[in-house]
Amino acid sequence: MLNKIHRILGRWFNKSTKTNNEPLNKVSLIVIILIDIFILFNVFRGLDDISLWYLSPYQAYPCYEQWNYYHNQIAKEKDYEIVSNSLLDDNFKQTYQQVQAGHLGRVPQICLNYKNYQDKIKNVENQQSVKTIAQKDRVIQNLESRNREIHTQYDSTLLEKIAGQKQEQSINSVSAAKAKQELEQNKQEIYTLEEEVSHLKSQLVTKPESQKFLALLKDESQFSELEKGYHQASFWYPSIQIAFELLFLLPLIFIALLVHKFSQSRGYGLLSLISWHLLVIFLIPLVLKVFEFFQIGAVFEYILNFISNLLGGLLFLVSYVYILIIPLVGFGIIQFFQKIVFNKKGQVVSRVQKTRCINCAKKIRPQDIYCPHCGDGQFFECHNCHHLTYKFLPYCRDCGHLQDVNNLMSKHSNNRPNSSNQA
């Protein structure tokens, strides 16, 4: 197993650093590395851009956050709070339809209704009421702050009076009598302002447009529909993002693979080298995105929900499930590429038909016993008639006897010379 891994790594290194069996010079190698870094940076930037193409749950359900906050609030003045926030929040200057521009997905009708009711509240009169209330609240806070200061001085003045200290020696600016009088005036003013604020708040909340908006917020069926849609969007969004990222990567991988195969068959060494580097660069984020899908995608959510329902809080068992599943999936992927995509027997059949080297796929003459490009032998001796026949093909071309192809391929992989153009 270790020898096989070593051979694979050796072949990969040769393909990455040689062109037409000639090693790259230092300058060329540096240029290739710089190109790799530049392309890899742009690949990840493209992945970031396309991952934001589809509306996120927050963008698709922009009314959910405020609506959910309102439902979870138990404060007495939560009706006024939601109305006033809607009037003063700058985030609602743009319509919800504008969120959809340049993106896939759409804002549901329930949030559009929410925005319509909210727009009807946002008139000049209501906005002025909220500003007036805020001004009166600031005055109340200033008066309360002044009262706390007077209380401190009043208590200090009483202590000085008890101690028999003269007024002119006092450290306080007002006497106890004046302090008491100012306290009473401030309290009366605070009470009056609080009554005015309460009246303005009640007036704002009871307006017809506010009542329609609050009625929508209090509709349990509407909120249940909103909450269900938001959670469903949150569940699928990571998987949708990864699907779009794969949609970005797979054409690049397919094109790089086609160019690499074409350049190998025509003997274009430099093009083969560059396309090989591109193929490796495109495969790196693909592998990362596959692992990301298994960690945060719908598959992970299904496994997590299943274990939560089955075993309660024993969520650490998810790790056990992943330790079991991921090797099985990896084994399946390896078998798929070994048996279907990179099937040696299928490659040999195609190359023999096109008169190409069965090892490096370069053009050779029919009478060539050894490839002049990589030195690999094209024939072996049939163990029945002892004539030369094509390696890796199942039957002898002279006597038609069945050959032990699997045993021959195993021996060839152990004794094959290194080549930068091996397929």
Q: What gross morphology would you assign?
A: elongated
Which percent band covers the strand fraction? under 5%
Tell how many strands the DSSP assignment holds.
4
Range of helix content: 55-70%
Show unreliable segments.
Answer: 168-173, 413-423
Order of helices and strands: HEEHHHHHHHHHHHHHEEH
Residue-averaged pLDDT: 77
Structure overview:
- This protein is mainly alpha-helical and 423 residues long.
- Among the domains are: 64-218; 346-415, no CATH class.
- Helices cover 70% and strands 2% of the residues.
- It has 15 helices and four strands.
- It has helices at residues 2-17, 26-51, 57-60, 64-72, 78-88, 109-121, 124-162, 176-205, 208-218, 220-266, 269-296, 298-311, 317-341, 344-353, 405-415, and strands spanning 18-19, 22-23, 379-381, 388-390.
- A two-stranded antiparallel sheet has the order 1-2. Strands 3-4 form a two-stranded antiparallel sheet.
- Helix 10 runs antiparallel to helix 11 (269-296).
- It starts with a helix and ends in an 8-residue tail after the last helix.
- The relative contact order is 0.09.
- The model is unreliable at 168-173 and 413-423 (pLDDT under 50).
In short:
The protein is mainly alpha-helical.
Give short descriptive properties of this protein:
two-stranded antiparallel sheet, mainly alpha, 423 residues, two-stranded antiparallel ribbon, 15 helices
Secondary structure layout plus pairing:
Blueprint: H1 2-17, E1 18-19, E2 22-23, H2 26-51, H3 57-60, H4 64-72, H5 78-88, H6 109-121, H7 124-162, H8 176-205, H9 208-218, H10 220-266, H11 269-296, H12 298-311, H13 317-341, H14 344-353, E3 379-381, E4 388-390, H15 405-415
Antiparallel strand pairs: 1-2, 3-4
